[in-house]
Amino acid sequence: MRVLLWGSGLFCVAFFLHVLAWKIRIPKGQTKAILYIFFGVLCAWLLGALLLLRASLPLASILPRNVAEYGHVIFFMGTLTLYYISFYTLIEADSPSLIIALRVWEAGSLGLREEELFKAFNDEMLVVSRLNDLLEASMVRYEDGRYKINPSGKAFIRPFIAFRKALKCGIGG
Fold first, then answer.
1. How many other β-carbons are positioned within 10 Å of the β-carbon of residue 124?
2. 37-42: which pairs have CB atoms within 8 A and are 24 or more residues apart?
3. Residues paired with residue 147 on neighbouring β-strands, in sequence order
4. pLDDT at 14
5. How many angstroms separate the CA atoms of 68 and 76, rounded?
6. In order of start, what are the domains of the chain with their CATH numbers?
7. d(Cα 82, Cα 20) in Å, to the nearest integer?
8. Alpha-carbon torsion 65, 78, 83, 63, what sign?
9. What DSSP designation does 124 have?
10. Are 52 and 60 in contact (CB under 8 A)?
């Protein structure tokens, strides 16, 4: 129960800080900022727990009891954080599936004509904005009329490629 409470509580604190930070100013590298906030909260908690344990304060009794419980809290918080980041990327940019669903929903019982739906999509929305995001995050660079992947882009994309290969999905969409 301690793992669930501490992991969920830490996630809620990090989420609150994330929302607060975005109210002040949305950072350029949003995913990286989320990682810093969420794992920063986790590291601050670990440091605080260590200090409480070393000082033998009564509050230490509510902390996890052993190394295994701390490991579980770290794993739980890390899993929630990575899940949240994958969810956040869906709402951060205009997902084609989300746009379709929203347009059809907004049309209501009358429905949405096919022509109207196709008008909603263009290269500016689907390609250019995403390329700009990748350039801004320094995952790719534009050089001699070509887009080239940077080391940070390779590091980011490798787990996705490995996962897709493991599922036998191939590289493409």
1. 8
2. 38/11, 38/14, 38/77, 38/81, 38/84, 39/78, 39/81, 40/14, 41/10, 41/13, 41/14, 41/17, 42/10, 42/14, 42/74, 42/77, 42/78, 42/81
3. 142
4. 97
5. 12
6. 2-92 (no CATH), 96-166 (1.10.10)
7. 19
8. positive
9. I
10. yes
Continuous H helices in the chain? 2-24, 30-55, 67-92, 96-107, 114-119, 123, 129-136, 151-166
Averaged pLDDT score across all residues of the chain: 86
Cα separation of 50 and 44, whole Å?
10
93-107, pLDDT tens digit by residue?
Answer: 667 777 888 889 998
Can you give the length of the chain in residues? 173
pTM over 0.70: no
Question: In this structure, what token pair is assigned to residue 157?
Answer: 């994309």
Half-sphere exposure of 24 (CA within 13 A, CB side): 6
Instruction: Summarize pLDDT for 38-93 with one digit per residue, the tens.
Output: 999 999 999 988 888 887 777 777 888 889 999 999 999 999 999 998 888 777 76
* CA dihedral (8, 37, 59, 73) positive or negative: positive
Paired tokens of 70: 């701390």
| Contacts for 89 with CB less than 8 Å, ≥ 6 apart | 31
